[in-house]
């Protein structure tokens, strides 16, 4: 169920409860031997007041509950530091998107991003600076990503991008886009001093490898380590060799 559905569901339930209020009152009168139809004719405004009043009360409460449920669900799938999706969300979506791609006979690609020497920033300048840098970099990645590209933070300085309906060639172009946008970010670490950071990026596409989605994820990470080993600040595509 989507976050929007939650709020709609609670309001719908509230309207049902509001309708039950006058119905329940009529049932009680019937059980007491009172002529319900005569009572309705004589006091129809009372029943309308009962329904409208109950509807306003229940709908307001239902909307409040639904909104809070949406907020809690959003927190459960959002990384607090970057406001990107978190690893939990990614682990839910990857099998779904892989199944969707198979059903539509499409390819999907994975890009694994690791920030170079990020631990040094935390060590030298503190976690406050590190968190600020993460937020800036996350914004930069989101800023150049396309609407159908799903981004998640999966580690201290690691991000994964899931590209739906995407070939190997398109993934290469996207990875180069992310590499550049990260290196373009400049952030202040102390008064009068600014630095930038680079990334090692690995990628793989289901177009060139028919393994399952989790194996592809592992291959993308392996390719990232190769980019790191070969000098960092570059993109490496996974290959069997």
Automatic annotation (TrEMBL):
One of its GO terms (biological process) is negative regulation of bacterial-type flagellum-dependent cell motility. InterPro entries: Diguanylate_Cyclase, GGDEF_dom, Nucleotide_cyclase, Rev_trsase/Diguanyl_cyclase. PROSITE patterns: GGDEF. GO terms for molecular function: diguanylate cyclase activity. It comes from the Bacteria. Its EC number is 2.7.7.65. The chain crosses the membrane at residues 12-34, 46-65. CDD domains: GGDEF. Residues 106-240 form the GGDEF domain. It catalyses: 2 GTP = 3',3'-c-di-GMP + 2 diphosphate. Keywords: Membrane, Nucleotidyltransferase, Transferase, Transmembrane, Transmembrane helix. GO terms for cellular component: plasma membrane. NCBIfam families: GGDEF. This is diguanylate cyclase. The lineage of its organism: Bacteria, Pseudomonadati, Pseudomonadota, Gammaproteobacteria, Cellvibrionales.
């Amino acid at each position: 169920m989507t976050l929007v559905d939650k709020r709609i569901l609670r309001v719908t339930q509230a309207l049902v409860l509001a309708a039950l209020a006058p119905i329940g009152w009529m049932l009680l009168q019937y059980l007491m031997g009172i002529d319900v139809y005569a009572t309705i004719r004589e006091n129809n405004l009372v029943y309308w007041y009962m329904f409208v009043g109950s509807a306003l009360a229940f709908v307001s409460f239902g909307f409040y509950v639904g909104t809070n449920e949406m907020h809690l669900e959003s927190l459960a799938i959002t990384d607090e530091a970057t406001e990107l999706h978190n690893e939990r969300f990614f682990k839910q979506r990857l099998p779904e998107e892989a199944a969707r791609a198979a059903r539509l006979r499409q390819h999907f690609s994975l890009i694994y991003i690791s920030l170079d020497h990020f631990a040094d920033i935390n060590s030298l300048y503190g976690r406050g600076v590190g968190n600020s840098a993460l937020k800036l970099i996350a914004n930069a990645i989101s800023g150049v990503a396309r609407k159908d590209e799903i981004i998640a933070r999966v580690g201290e300085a690691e991000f994964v991008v899931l590209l739906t309906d995407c070939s190997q060639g398109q993934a290469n172009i996207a990875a180069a886009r992310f590499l550049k946008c990260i290196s373009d970010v400049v952030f202040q670490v102390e008064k009068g001093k600014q630095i930038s950071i680079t990334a090692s990026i690995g990628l793989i596409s289901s177009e060139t490898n028919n393994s399952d989605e989790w194996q592809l994820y592992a291959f993308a990470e392996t390719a990232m380590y190769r980019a790191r080993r070969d000098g960092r600040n570059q993109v490496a595509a996974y290959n069997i060799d």
